[in-house]
Amino acid sequence: MEQRKEVSVSGVSYAVKRLLGKGKGGYSYLVTDGAGEYVLKQIHHEPCGYYQFGDKMAAELNDYRRLSETGIRMPRLLAADVEAEHILKEYIAGDTILDYVRRDRMRPEFLEQVREMCRLLYPAGLNIDYFPTNFVVREGLLYYIDYECNGYQEQWDFEHWGIAYWSMTPEMAEYLREHPQGGGPPSPKSCLADSPVMCYNKLDILYIRRRFPCRYARSPSASPGTAGRWISSPSAGALWRRKSLPMARPCGPCGSRTGTESRWTW
Q1: Which of 50, 103, 163, 195 is deepest in the core (most CB within 10 A)?
Q2: What helix, strand, coil percent values describe the chain, rounded to 5?
Q3: For the segment 84-133, what is each residue's pLDDT rounded down to a tens digit?
Q4: Where does residue 79 rank: exposed (0-12), middle (13-18), buried (19+ CB within 10 A)?
Q5: DSSP helix/strand/coil, 3
Q6: Model confidence, pTM
Q7: How far apart are CA 243 and CA 228, in angstroms?
Q8: Which of residues 223 and 80 earns the better pLDDT score?
Q9: Are the beta carbons of 153 and 162 closer than 8 angstroms?
């Protein structure tokens, strides 16, 4: 989309400072009215091979309403021009979680904060887009800067999908190779596992150990290839626990019922 110098929302003009990014639903620009900075989202209608849209503008406004009711931190909706398909929202200045992962600066409190979001979202029957470009840290607080949300499905929740991109996992390394300048989330794949035991929702304990100054211990009852769990030591703050359970249903999109399902829980 061609860079604009000026845009309007409901008759009010804003100067465009720069393009912030493009998602599957629209382009986001940093704009100003001379008094402050804002984000203007221009809805686009470019095809997306893995996501079906209806009325994008109506969906955006409805998603904002639903997320507002949960109480998660996100930018305020300031204005909406339905005819022009423009949305003006609060600008949250800061680095994205993707920036932190790239620089190897990921911090445990960011995971704790997304956990708090999940505690509000899951009971409401909602998932958000957990890809790290959608989260910005401002003054130590995590914000979800998109408005997209969908009905809850376990295979797309944070523990089964999003967490695979919140540290330098093989999935994230592959994404960065394919998108050196960043961009939207990767297209869903049939299976991200190295083996049927860790199907689609895998995040090895080693990745967490490399990222955080914590020590982890394996339950004495667990041995390689058998059911068991990894638990954090008392000094680690009980951040994560992995349970390997018999699979009672297909694991994510791949449909495999082989082996065990490995899940991360808090």
Answers
A1: 163
A2: 25, 30, 45
A3: 999 999 999 999 999 999 999 999 999 999 999 999 999 999 999 999 99
A4: middle
A5: coil
A6: 0.69
A7: 6
A8: 80
A9: no
